[in-house]
Design a protein that fits this description.
Helix content is 41%, strand content 14%. It is built from 13 helices and 14 strands. The strands form four sheets. An eight-stranded parallel barrel has the order 1-2-5-8-9-10-11-14, surrounded by six helices. A two-stranded antiparallel sheet has the order 3-4. Strands 6-7 form a two-stranded antiparallel sheet. The termini are far apart. It binds phosphoenolpyruvate and manganese (II) ion. Manganese (II) ion binds next to loops.
Length: 451
């Protein structure tokens, strides 16, 4: 049975957030089935704890001050089929490998956040998909419907929200066990990086940097810094808070502080397509205490940015609000400065991170949605240039990646060509950097951080 505080909070959310226009929600066929699923979700235990969310807020405040760097990454869309030890392990391995390189180069702690354990809902540019003259509802992520292009599979099914909860719980449990149980051992993770540098053509360029990290680790060992801390890391979960029926059912009153947290993940963000100031998503995010992000694309005006900050972070709580810029490689150098300048002029200290993926998507002649590795790198470069030029902090990266050797993004040091995309194109939504491209990106960003 939920507590009376939780029941009161849920009614308040359904009355306030529920009354506003909500972009990108599915057309559920039966309201009863939605009520049944949300009733089940409301009885289930939290996936994350308020205290963990607060700790992440303090970490993000350090990012905003330039005293830490954020690495956020994972699939565009997680799938139920992807909840396997191998898949989760490979993704974590890649994130941890990237984090070591970035930590060394930035000389500050790297805050690690997975697009993981909850990233099951997707916004779509069109509500329907047409293939060979057949029109069906678009795939909106495993939390809503199935990817297969059949009438039955594409029917939104509210019971999938409960499956998404359990898939998130299993993923988070595994992730917590990996990082707490020795898998994140610094020496081990570094040895994977040395393998990458030694054995792959893409890695060879980074031999010197990897060698310097070797030396640093050897030095630490020599002076007997070999504490338990080197064997574990702090890892946080995050996803887009898109499907409001799900997120509201998992919002609870924290018994310590009496304030609401969305306990479906540590960090929640609002997407580019659902950040309307008078819309349901912004209202929902304004009512939870977790650290939150907002995607800001090239059409965002400085006034809009400030209005978002006023609505989402009126108290200017350090670490509360992260702007995830996704401008496109060709646009970032022009579009980002006015936003940063406006924030600075208003005394707003936000955390700025770069999503170099979503502004750089295009369709290859084969019909695959893809991104050029060079564009991704160029957007990151632009992000650093702009911040350095204005004296503000380039806080981190938000990337779509996998630990597997997929062929979804074009280019890289072990290059994937447009006509090779079909060989291992496995994403159910946007193209991800594969393992090699992700590690390369980390080494390239390390060079930028050291510059
Ligand atoms: C995403 O992060 O997968 C996404 C859809 O991004 P955006 O909201 O920036 O388009
Ligand atoms: Mn995406």
């Amino acid at each position: 049975m939920n507590s009376s505080e939780d029941r009161a909070l849920y009614s308040e959310l359904t009355e306030t957030v529920g009354a506003l226009p909500a972009a990108q929600q599915p057309q559920w066929p039966h309201r009863d089935a939605v009520d049944d699923a949300t009733a089940q979700l409301r009885e289930l235990p939290p996936l994350v704890f308020a205290g963990e969310c607060d700790l992440l807020t303090t970490r993000l405040a350090a990012v905003a001050r330039g005293e830490a760097f954020l690495l956020q990454g994972g699939d565009c869309a997680e799938t139920f089929a992807g909840v396997s030890a191998e898949n989760v392990r490979n993704k974590l391995k890649t994130l941890l490998q990237m984090a070591i390189v970035l930590t060394y180069a930035a000389s500050v702690p790297v805050v690690k956040v997975g697009r993981l354990a909850g990233q099951y809902a997707k916004p779509r540019s069109k509500a329907d998909e047409i293939r060979d003259g057949v029109t069906l509802p678009a795939f909106r992520g495993d939390i809503v419907n199935e990817f297969d292009f059949t009438e039955q599979a594409r029917q939104p099914d509210p019971a999938r929200m409960v499956r998404a909860y359990h898939a998130s719980a299993a993923t988070l449990n595994l992730a917590r066990a990996f990082v707490g149980g020795g898998y994140a051992d610094l020496h081990e993770v570094h040895s994977w990086n040395t393998d990458f540098v030694r054995t792959s053509p893409a890695g060879q360029r980074y031999e010197r940097l990897a060698g310097r990290i070797d030396q640093a680790l050897a030095f630490m060992k020599a002076i007997e810094i070999d504490s338990e801390q080197l064997r574990t890391v702090e890892l946080y979960s995050s996803h887009e808070a898109l499907l409001l029926d799900y997120e509201m059912a998992l919002t609870r009153v924290d018994s310590r502080s009496g304030v609401p947290y969305d306990v479906s993940g540590h960090f929640l963000w609002i997407g580019e397509r659902s950040r309307q100031l008078d819309g349901a998503h912004v209202e929902f995010a304004s009512r939870i205490t977790n650290p939150i992000g907002v995607k800001v694309g090239p059409t965002t005006t400085p006034d809009e940015l400030m209005a978002l900050a006023d609505k989402l972070d009126p108290e200017r709580r350090p670490g509360r609000l992260t702007f995830v810029t996704r401008m496109g490689a060709g646009t970032i150098r022009d579009a980002l400065p006015p936003l940063i300048q406006k924030a600075a002029a208003n005394g707003l200290v936000a955390t700025w991170i770069c999503d170099p993926m979503h502004g750089n998507t295009y369709e290859a002649p084969s019909g695959h949605k893809t991104r050029r590795f060079d564009d991704v790198v160029d957007e990151v470069r632009g992000f650093f240039e702009v911040h350095r030029g204005l004296g503000t902090h380039p806080g981190g990266l938000h990337v779509e990646l996998t630990g597997d050797d997929v062929t979804e993004c074009v280019g890289g040091g072990d290059p994937i060509a447009e006509d090779g995309l079909g060989s291992r194109y496995e994403t159910v939504c946007d193209p991800r950097l594969n393992r090699t491209q992700s590690l390369e990106l980390a080494f390239l960003v390390a060079e930028l951080l050291e510059a």
